[in-house]
Amino acid sequence: ILFAGDWAVFSIGYFLGIFGSPIDFDSMRLTDMQIFLFTGRLINVIFGVATIYLVYLAGKKIKNEETGLLGALFLTFMYLHVEECRYIHYLVPVVFFIMLAFLSILQIFYTGRVRYYLLTGFIIGLGGVIKYTSFTAAFPFIIAHLLRFGNLREAFSKKSAVKLSLGIFFVLLGFVCGYPRVGRPAYRTRA
């Protein structure tokens, strides 16, 4: 995520003539970190505001618009959420991806469409790249699948088991797509 912010800083700086090459960009990174700190914090604030909107959508989907507004209002003034948005830290994006997965899980519960199984799995996988605890969203994913059908026979019939299996496969796919070290060793050794 921070790579995207750094890429944006470089692109804008290159367009404005501040950076002549990636080497100029890298030397600025070593001498003056202020723009990079600002970019990282801005990314976290964007995730935090987007999470507030996702809470609103979840409340609206579950009950009504007033519930969504009340939930969003609580999160807006929740001290820990505001505090974490100030720092360059992984917790705010993790909460964003968990809330995004939760919205998709609600769609599984209400509609049961295959695209929501795939989307939920992919989102959980991307969240798992940021922090492994995002994988805990897989439990509500499976529970929503079971509640959608009402009994175990229907929940594990061939058609519905394929949906769940595809969703779980997309968890792995989301993780592999988001993880930058797939296929590379975690550390280098000298021969």
Explain how this protein is built.
By secondary structure, this protein is an all-alpha fold. The chain contains ten helices and no strands. The longest helix has 29 residues, at 34-62. The mean pLDDT is 88.
What's the short version?
The chain has helices at residues 2-16, 22-31, 34-62, 65-76, 79-85, 91-110, 114-130, 138-149, 152-155, 158-178. With 191 residues, it is mostly helical.
Keywords summarizing the entry:
mainly alpha; 0% strand
The share of residues in helices is over 70%
Distance between the termini: 33 Å
Round the Cα radius of gyration to an integer and report it. 20 Å
Largest sheet: number of strands, sense, barrel closure: none
Regions with little confidence, pLDDT below 50 for 5+ residues? none
- In DSSP terms, counting alpha (H) and pi (I) runs of 4 or more, how many helices? 10
Helix and strand arrangement:
Elements: H1 2-16, H2 22-31, H3 34-62, H4 65-76, H5 79-85, H6 91-110, H7 114-130, H8 138-149, H9 152-155, H10 158-178
Helix pairs in contact: 1-3, 3-4, 3-5, 3-6, 6-7, 6-8, 7-10
